[in-house]
Structure formats: C-alpha cells, structure tokens
TrEMBL record:
Protein name: mevalonate kinase
Domain GHMP kinase N-terminal: start-end pairs: 67-143
Organism: Amycolatopsis azurea DSM 43854
Subcellular location: Cytoplasm
InterPro entries the record matches: GHMP_kinase_C_dom, GHMP_kinase_C_sf, GHMP_kinase_N_dom, GHMP_knse_ATP-bd_CS, Mev_gal_kin, Ribosomal_Su5_D2-typ_SF, Ribsml_uS5_D2-typ_fold_subgr
Pathway noted in the entry: Isoprenoid biosynthesis; isopentenyl diphosphate biosynthesis via mevalonate pathway; isopentenyl diphosphate from (R)-mevalonate: step 1/3
Entry EC no(s): 2.7.1.36
Keyword terms: ATP-binding, Cytoplasm, Kinase, Lipid biosynthesis, Lipid metabolism, Magnesium, Nucleotide-binding, Transferase
Gene3D superfamilies documented for this protein: 3.30.230.10, GHMP kinase, C-terminal domain
Amino acid sequence: MLLGEHAVVYGAPAVAIPVPALPVEASAAWSGSLARQDEISLLTTAVVDTSVLTLGTDGLHRLISAFRKIAGVRETAWVDVCVDCEIPFGRGLGSSAAHARAVVLALGELFGRQLDDRAIFDLVQIAENVAHGNASGVDAAAVGSPVPILFSDRVAERLSVGFDGVVVVADSGVAGKTKDAVELLRQRFERAPESRMDFMGRSADLTYAAVKELTEGRARDFGSSLTAAHELLRGMGLSTDLIDRLVDVALDAGSLGAKITGGGLGGCAIALARGLETAGMIARRLEEAGAVRTWSAPLRRCVDDGG
C-alpha cells in the first residue's frame, strides 16, 4: 500500500503496487489419500503461527467451495495444495491475498478451468474476508497487477508512472495488528464522528494528489505526499516508535518520502528513492536502524494503455 490505508475500508481511494521481489507460487495435485474428510489439504513453506494457519485453512475451504460453484466442478475431489510463499505474514504486504490468488490459479490449472479477472478477484476476496473480516479488496487487486493501481469503489485502475524510482520496503520485525488497528479507528470514529469524515477526506485528497504527481512524473512531490500520509496515519495512533524511527532514518538518508504501510501497529515502512544507488544506501541505513530485512519494488516509467 502506498496511500489510502484504512480509509479504503470506508470507501476512500487507495494506491498500491506489486512487489516482484516477494513471489508466491502454488501447485495443486490430486491427492493420493481418499480416507480423509477434508477435500483439500494445505502445505505452506511460510513460517506462521497456529492462528494464522487456521485462518488460512478456513479461508481455503471457503475458497474451494466457491471455486467448485464458479468453475462448475460437480464431482468430489481430494486435492493437495502446496504454497511456496516468500511474503512474511502479518507485515501489511498482502500475503494472504497473494497466497489465495496463487491457490486459485493452481486450482484453475488442475481442473482445466479458465477464470476471468473478476472471478479470480471474487475468489480471493472470499479468503480475504475470512482472514480480515471485511476486506476492502485492494490487496486482492494489487497482487494481480503488474503495475501500480488506483483502487476505488471496488474497481482497480492501472496507473501510468511518469518517473523511474524504487520503493524500499523495510520490515520492522514486529507483526502488524490490522484487526486491532481497525477497531482502534472504529472506536475513535464512534467517540468523534466528525473525525471519520476528516480522516477520509484528508486521505482521499492525498491519494488523488499523489496519483496526479505519479502520472505527471513529479517524484519529489509524490514523495512529499507519502510522508504527509504517514503523518496522517501516525496522528491516528496507527504507527509505532520503531516505524517512526525508520521513517525518519529513510528521510535523513535521502528518501523523497517515507511512511508506514499496511494495517499498522507494526509491520513495515516504505521509502521512495530516485535510483538504485540511493535505494541501496537507504536500505542499509534502515537495517542499521533496526529493520530486520528490506526489499525493493521498482517504479518504472510507463503509460497505461488500458490493457
């Protein structure tokens, strides 16, 4: 997520990008075991705790049930699914959505079904809603896009990019608490209803301004919008001391802008660099400041052709 965290749940726009450095691959095969009651088994290489794995399995069962209906699979089938996921869970990086999309594509290949983009999105959302409650859909859309997207009213629009840059992603090492953050905001909005409209309005203004800056190639202004978005989220109590420190370090190291990303109360920070050399220096500084690992996501100049 570049902009629009939390506000997107209430209908405001958001901007997100894919992170090619963190791939997810899934394979599905007919099971050799007919004795079990479950139709599907899940094996993942990701290190997750029991609660996350249970949520993932529950979402997978809902997903395969819906897949059978959408794909017209009538016969009972026992399937083994293996997922190789390099995205750390609980970091606000869309791991559950990427996980679900990989499984959907693997099932489609196994059953010989061609699913259109909308069907894939709907299936991923089924698993996402189990994992997150009322998922906005932005993660489900972003993990299937090769370019940045603007997500609004459950519709993803591919964005043109007017400059070359690099988004450095820094893992704080602390799992985010999306559900806690959502509840924190909900309670705050109940206590002060006007704060909800103010938050959504400011978030939407920043997001639309950033889209214009991104497409027009105004990298420095785009970076400033990212930093302003961090201040908005921090003011709502969604950041942490460590994330704030990582943001400050990134800015001191030459980042054009930096912010928290994802649900908040932990997770990752992101920083915008103009080139690979600066991105590398920022990544080193972030790791020295406490980030347990970093990745890079390219922002490449491109013009959306509607394809």
